[in-house]
């Protein structure tokens, strides 16, 4: 499954760059004075999530003794806008040269998308770099989907960080990762939020539905009649929802999944009165900022729900296609027993729970007491623990 399109001659160009970079890295005349650390996430398209939080931590706490680089998509502009230091364009010759010279590489999605494009075919050439997978969320909702190109990359990874012993058991027994490769350090991005921080009122609601692999190849007309789009449409066009938003002075921000780009205009065309429901693409807003500012979450199976649990904010899980979802992908959670928020199977139940939460100021998550079943650390030292674990393993 290709997450980014490639040109006809891209494989040849990549081969030439990789070959030249590999040999140059072997015959470099200058001795490497500092350890080189490469960090990347979100396919280089955004400075968000665990990878970016950990990168910022490394810059602030290890910038003197290490050369730390961020890998980014050259088609984006966020590096200049956010003044991210030592940023290297993915797919550039320098990118591949640093890949072979690096002491450590840290990625949130895939080495082949976050650190060095198409490197899965040449990963065997790099025997030096210690490679760490830090995930982009706690791996519980969706069962892992391993593509052909993922096999050598997963095998090559030296370490996989885990948010908790719960997640470690999933990666050990379900993913088949050897125990010596699993390190339990917490989730880096939790350091940004802080635990147990419910809002005083529930006015700002973040809405995010996760992706379905079955949507990749749909035409626009097929997508319009899909359960995914129709369920979204019915929520926001329901008269009871409109009344609730109006009477409660609620503001809903709908964050569209990054894979939703070709269908974004269909959501923006939804006729919603009042203007208090806004749709945003992945690259228009900061996920981290929205998690902090939102008072509650409406989702299906999104991993950002862990952040809301961590902060003790209410969550509604709208499991409109649970049977199909489990058949298509499967989950490590029992979606009938293990959810840490209100479970709504229908639009009626979504509205019922939203009314209950907003009209009675239920600002806390009533399932917060089970947060420690899934999350081990609530101390904002997740990045520190991760750095200690990584840099002592040589």
UniProtKB/TrEMBL annotation:
One GO location term (cellular component): membrane
Entry annotated with the keyword tRNA processing: no
Span of the signal peptide: none
Keywords on record: Transferase
Superkingdom: Bacteria
InterPro entries named in the record: Glycerophosphate_synth, TagF_C, Teichoic_Acid_Biosynth
Gene Ontology MF annotations: CDP-glycerol glycerophosphotransferase activity
One family name in Pfam for this protein: Glyphos_transf
Keyword Ubl conjugation: no
SUPFAM superfamilies: UDP-Glycosyltransferase/glycogen phosphorylase
Identification of the protein by name: CDP-glycerol--glycerophosphate glycerophosphotransferase
Naturally occurring in which organism (per UniProt): Psychrobacillus lasiicapitis
């Amino acid at each position: 499954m290709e997450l980014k399109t490639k040109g006809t001659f891209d494989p040849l160009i990549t081969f030439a760059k990789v070959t030249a970079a590999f040999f140059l890295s072997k015959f470099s005349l200058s001795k490497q004075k500092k350890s080189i650390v490469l960090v990347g996430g979100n396919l280089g398209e955004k400075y968000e999530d665990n990878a970016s939080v950990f990168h910022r931590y490394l810059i602030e706490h290890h910038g003197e003794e290490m050369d730390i680089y961020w890998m980014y998509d050259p088609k984006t502009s966020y590096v200049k806008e956010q003044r991210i230091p030592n940023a290297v364009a993915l797919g550039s010759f320098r990118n591949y040269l640093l890949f072979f010279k690096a002491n450590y590489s840290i990625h949130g999605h895939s080495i082949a998308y976050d650190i060095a494009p198409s490197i899965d075919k040449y990963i065997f050439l790099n025997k030096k770099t210690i490679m760490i997978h830090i995930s982009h969320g706690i791996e519980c909702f969706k069962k892992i989907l391993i593509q052909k190109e993922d096999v050598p990359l997963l095998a090559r990874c030296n370490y996989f960080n885990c948010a908790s012993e719960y997640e470690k058991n999933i990666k050990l027994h379900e993913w088949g990762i050897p125990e010596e490769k699993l390190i339990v350090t917490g989730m880096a991005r939790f350091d940004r939020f802080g635990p147990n921080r419910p809002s005083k009122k529930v006015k700002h609601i973040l809405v995010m539905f996760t992706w379905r692999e079955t949507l990749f190849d749909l035409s626009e007309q097929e997508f319009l009649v899909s359960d995914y789009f129709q369920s979204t449409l019915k929520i926001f066009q329901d008269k009871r929802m409109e009344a609730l938003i109006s009477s409660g002075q609620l503001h809903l921000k709908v964050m569209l999944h990054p894979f939703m780009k070709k269908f974004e205009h269909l959501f923006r065309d939804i006729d919603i009165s009042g203007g208090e429901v806004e749709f945003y693409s992945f690259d228009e807003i900061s996920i981290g900022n929205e998690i902090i500012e939102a008072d509650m979450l409406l989702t299906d199976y999104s991993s950002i729900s862990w952040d809301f649990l961590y902060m003790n904010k209410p969550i509604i899980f709208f499991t409109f296609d649970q049977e199909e979802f489990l058949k298509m992908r499967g989950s490590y959670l029992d979606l009938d027993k293990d959810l840490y928020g209100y479970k709504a199977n229908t639009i009626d139940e979504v509205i019922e729970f939203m009314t209950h939460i907003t009209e009675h100021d239920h600002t806390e998550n009533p399932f917060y007491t089970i947060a420690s079943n899934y999350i081990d650390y609530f101390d904002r030292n997740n990045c520190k623990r991760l750095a200690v674990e990584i840099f002592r393993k040589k």
